[in-house]
Amino acid sequence: MKKTISVALTGNPNVGKTTVFNTITGSRQHVGNWPGVTVEKKTGRCEYADTSIEVTDLPGTYSLTAYSADEVIARNFIIEDNPDVVVQVVDASNLERNLYLTMQLAELGRPVIVALNMVDVAEGRGDTIDEKRLSELLAMPVVRTVGTSGRGLDRLLETIIAVAAKGEKHTHTIGYGDEAEALISDLVRILDDDPALAGGYPLRWLAVRAIEGDSAVLALIEKSSVAGAVQARLQQIDLDEYEALLADKRYEAIGAILPQACTMCVRKMTGSDMIDRVVTNKYLGIPIFLALMWGAFQLTFAVAEPFMAGIEYVFGWLGEVVAGSIGNEWLASLLGDGVIGGVGGVFVFVPNIFILFLILSILEGSGYLARAAFIMDRLMYVIGLPGKSFIPMLMGFGCNVPAIMSTRTIEDDRDRLITILVNPFISCGARLPVYILFAGVFFGRDAGNVIFGLYALGIVVAILSAKLFRCTILPGESSPFIMEMPPYRIPTIKNAMLNMWEKGSMYLKKAGGIILIGSLIVWFLASYPAGVEYGSEESFAGMIGHLLEPLVSPLGLDWKIAVALIFGFVAKEIVVSSLGVLYGADEGSAALSDALLADPALSMAGALAVMVFVLLYMPCVATLGVIKKETGSWRWAGFSVLYGLVVAWILAFATFHLASYFLGGA
Amino acid sequence: MSSPDHSPVTLDTVISGDKARIVGVKAKGHLRKRLLEMGIIPGAIIESIRVAPLGDPVEFRVKGYNLSIRKGDAACIEVVMEVE
Fold it and tell me: Domain Ferrous iron transporter FeoA-like, which positions (chain B) (predicted)?
């Protein structure tokens, strides 16, 4: 029978754990160049030399003291799930701080392996690392790896198997100096009195963690018979002082090890510094940030246009074929209006979605996201949030679901809750088709600017809402902002393409799945009860629409839009597919854009109001689910729906009336 | 008056391009722990790299990597200027 070895991949944020994981297990987990990309544990398997290895990729953490939700996941897995081998992925170009966690892992009494990752970057800079010497000094195996190319990963797997076979626990620990050691041995003696307490952990480790105020360890001690004695001993000392002493000794130990195993080049001005001189410049920083965002959306629109025209042509042709060749009127309508009108309407925007995700993944992979957070932190401070909250906002341009999950890196619960609640206002990729459709039809050459304006409005509403929440329902101080600034890296083409394909194909699957179903439901509502004219006011769709018309008519919209908005709750693209179905009557070949332009009920002002409403009105079903999951209650999910609807209605109303006044199109 | 090179100042007052040696971390609770484990410990050399366009936060280099700290948080870190 084959053995299975469980391995935990841990390490500081942004050292390349997920890249190593993907290469070893053949997975396609999301990677990027900023701290906090991975916020969940993910498990994968690989077979190597007749051994089955189960690898768990963990969120990054700077130490075993966990503050934020993602760090708690990492810490609990290592401590509670008892993996056979712990592999710490280390950034070879940033050894000193990375080894701090190594020092903590060493005390845990588990087999630990160090993977010196990104060793190519360190070598390219002229650093030399003697991994044999480092291995002796750390008393644990050290393997050089490059996650992106796979270099050294076979060695890593061999080492994992060898270490697991030996089953040797790591016993080498560092000394903390006479004073601290006296305290530690006192605590160990006290803890030893309760044999049930340790639960497999070394007593020394428990003592050290108790001094450092590890809440989980303190809770464990609290329940034991020695709780009083431990408390009494800890009360005799200044814990703050000891905490600093332990950290200091760990860095001292690292400082003693490093010069023996590595020679670091004297840091000259690096490429990253040069780029940052411009990109985060006092005068240029903000204009560059805005120009990048603006450029991204212009590009999304411009590059995709010829592809869109091609897809539109194909669906138009398909529509004609269906209309011409299928004799059965019912079937022809189902296929032509329902399937082709609905799904085709959404399919047209596939090129935009692909380009949007390509741009986002290039931004993520380069390291610019951390700079964006750095530049915008002051603004976040004004609204009472940490700069980290800005990254989920930028991620939201892709999809709100992973963006809301990425808030797990935010330490303070209220900060995190606010960041979650405002995220749906950040315009995700699914809303883009709605804008492209309406802006393209009604604003022609200015479409790019209108779309950029919508994205900006989303950000402004998010920021003002955050301020409002901070001042009312979730008061509090803004928590500290300490963020590592990763060096810039050139995003690998493979990763950018992979990421684009993963996200883009998700959109395609959505188009073939939930959007198809949504379109068919709308088609059914538009065709029945039997005998009514398709898509007329007497159909079910017409009845529902008319019921809601009083709500949307102040926004300059008619019943067809109302129906589309209802179904857009399932997924925002359905707004487009529903309109495709509803407007898709008879001609078949006429593109939705022509039909919208021809509709007397719609004006330029009305089009703006639709876009504003779709931008803000409510999180889609998937986002609602993740809000519930991350906040732990339906209450906040419900709140975000209600708040969104109210804000959307008010702003769409204002937009319609202002635009009618200025554009004279009412 | 004592020499300005030896009297402690707070980290937020260090000008971009200057280096200082950390002598004390006055923060409490989580902030303190986080600073310590990120290498902000007494004795470490820290260099101020640049201030963000809107005046806050500040990017520092410590232990061979860069990190960004808000001025308000940097104010609880005591340093003495290093003379080059």
Answer: 9-81
Contact status, residue A390 vs residue A373, Cβ threshold 8 Å: yes
What mean pLDDT, rounded, does chain A reach? 86
For residue A635, which phi and psi values (nearest 5 degrees)? -55, -50
Min Cα distance B15 → chain A (Å) is 14
CB atoms A244 and B42 under 8 Å: yes
Segment (H or E) for A457: helix A447-471
In this complex, the residue of A243, A387, A481 whose CB is nearest that of residue B33 is A243
pLDDT at B4 > cutoff 60: no
**C-alpha span between A387 and A379 (Å, rounded):** 8
Chain A residue with Cα closest to B55 = A378
Cα angle value A243/B37/A57 (rounded, 5°)? 125
Q: CB A97 to CB B65 under 8 A?
A: yes
Question: Could you tell me which chain B residue has the CA closest to the CA of A376?
Answer: B54
Q: Which residue has the tokens 């480092």?
A: A134
The CATH code of the domain at B9-81 is 2.30.30.90
Q: Please, which pLDDT band fits residue A103 given cuts at 50, 70 and 90?
A: very high
Question: Tokens 């022609």 identify what position?
Answer: A444
Confidence of residue A97 (pLDDT cuts 50, 70, 90): very high
* ipTM given for this complex: 0.91
pLDDT: is A507 or A93 the higher one?
A: A93
A4-166 topology per CATH: Rossmann fold (3.40.50)
Would the pLDDT of A588 be above 60? no
Residues in A touching B34 (Cβ below 8 Å):
62, 67, 480, 482
Residue contacts between A and B (CB atoms, under 8 Å): 123
CA distance linking residue A176 with residue A102, whole number of Å: 15
- Cβ pair A248:B43 closer than 8 A: yes
Identify the residue among A93, A240, A258, A268 best suited for mutation to test binding to B, counting B beta carbons within 10 A and taking the highest: A240
Q: CA dist A228 to A83, A195, A225, A594, Å?
A: 32, 16, 8, 79
Pairwise CB contact (< 8 Å): A374 & B64? no
CATH code given to domain A178-263: 1.10.287.1770
pLDDT digits (tens, 9 = 90+) for B34-46: 899 899 999 999 9
B54–A contact, CB cutoff 8 A: yes
pLDDT tier, A198 (very low <50, low <70, confident <90, very high otherwise): low
CA-angle at A102, arms to A18 and A480, nearest 5°? 75
**How much is the average pLDDT of A450-455?**
90
User: Which of A557, A558, A556 has its CA nearest to residue A666?
Assistant: A556
**By mean pLDDT, which of A475-479, A615-619, B56-60 is the weakest?**
A475-479
Cα A199 to Cα A6, A224, A382: the distances in Å are 20, 12, 47
CA distance A43 to A177: 40
Question: Which chain B residues touch A251 with a CB distance below 8 Å?
Answer: 39, 41, 44, 63
* Closest chain B residue by Cα to residue A122: B64
Domain map of chain A by residue range? Answer: 4-166, 178-263, 287-475+498-663
Q: Which residues of A218-249 are buried (b: 16+ CB within 10 A; e: fewer)?
A: bebbeebebbebbeebbeeeeebebbbbbbbb
Helix axes A271-279 and A285-325, enclosed angle (nearest 10):
90
Whose CA is closest to A621, among A424, A403, A352, A398?
A: A424
Rounded average pLDDT over A223-245: 87
* Best residue in B16, B25, B66 for a mutation probing chain A (most A CBs within 10 Å): B66
Residue A12 labelled as part of a binding site: yes
Strand partners, A4: A52
A146 annotated to bind ligand: yes
Q: Is A148 annotated as a binding residue?
A: yes
User: What is the average pLDDT across A356-366?
Assistant: 86
